[in-house]
């Protein structure tokens, strides 16, 4: 067998699934697998010689990791200001709609001056009666 990396090893078929564990195979099955693997490597060598590959498939090194690309756009200050204003306007509209959806506040119920005077007179009368009985609390 060759020690080099073949195209089949570096690009496995997405549909290939090992049917069983290698420890479950018999020796005759293992010999057949080795023979097939050798034929595949021989055919791979022929493909590379025809295609002019000249050997191994180049594999990028781990230290040569792809550098992330820079952003392709830049937002101008004017566009950023316009965007901020549009977002603020949308926020105001959302808040206005949310406030409109709330139930209306109850009307402030104030008593008329005459009613308040009558209630105050009644309270004074209660206190007068309580003091006359010698109580300091109602």
List the helices and strands and how they pair.
Elements: H1 7-10, H2 27-51, H3 77-101, H4 113-132
Features:
single chain, 138 residues, 4 helices, 0% strand
Explain how this protein is built.
54% of the residues lie in helices and 0% in strands. The protein has helices at 7-10, 27-51, 77-101, 113-132. It has four helices and no strands. The chain starts with 6 loop residues before the first helix and ends in a 6-residue tail after the last helix. The radius of gyration is 45 Å and the shape is elongated. The chain is mainly alpha-helical and 138 residues long. The chain has a domain at 7-51.
The topology string of helices and strands comes to HHHH
Quaternary state reads: single chain
On the 0 to 100 scale, the average pLDDT is: 81
Parts with pLDDT < 50 across at least 5 consecutive residues: none
Largest sheet: none
Secondary-structure content class: mainly alpha
Distance between the termini: 108 Å
Helix content: 40-55%
Number of helical stretches of at least 4 residues: 4
């Amino acid at each position: 067998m060759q020690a080099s990396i073949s195209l089949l090893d570096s690009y496995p078929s997405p549909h290939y699934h090992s049917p069983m564990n290698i420890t479950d195979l018999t020796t005759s099955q293992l010999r057949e697998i080795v023979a097939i693997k050798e034929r595949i490597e021989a055919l791979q060598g022929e493909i590379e010689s025809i295609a002019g590959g000249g050997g191994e498939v180049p594999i990028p090194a781990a230290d040569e990791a792809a550098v992330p690309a820079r952003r392709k756009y830049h937002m101008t200050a004017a566009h950023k200001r316009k965007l901020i204003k549009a977002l603020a306007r949308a926020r105001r509209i959302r808040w206005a709609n949310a406030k409109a959806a709330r139930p209306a506040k109850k009307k402030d119920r104030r008593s008329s001056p005459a009613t308040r005077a009558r209630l105050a007179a009644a309270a004074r009368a209660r206190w007068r009666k309580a003091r006359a009985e010698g109580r300091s609390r109602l």
